[in-house]
Known about the structure:
Structural class: mainly alpha
Radius of gyration: 13 Å
Helix content: 55-70%
Largest sheet: none
Distance between the termini: 9 Å
Amino acid sequence: GAYFTKIDLDRLNQLVFEFFSMGTGGPHKYTGRDMASAHSNHRITEADFQSSNDDLLDALRENGIGEAEQREVIAILDTLKRDVVRG
């Protein structure tokens, strides 16, 4: 599994919001570090990445998010895979 240090959840939530806003053409600009730098020490495996996407899809379904939007979210995340998976 992935190795995590103490996380500022408020900052993480803001960055996730910015990232998805920018990724879907919204008005917000992502202000975080690049994905490779941000994830370089976390040893995230392919299985970790897929598990995270599966959990996200479950949450989207539970909250009534449509199939097209779910596919869009996963497509955005898949663009990050090569910079996030390190394990």
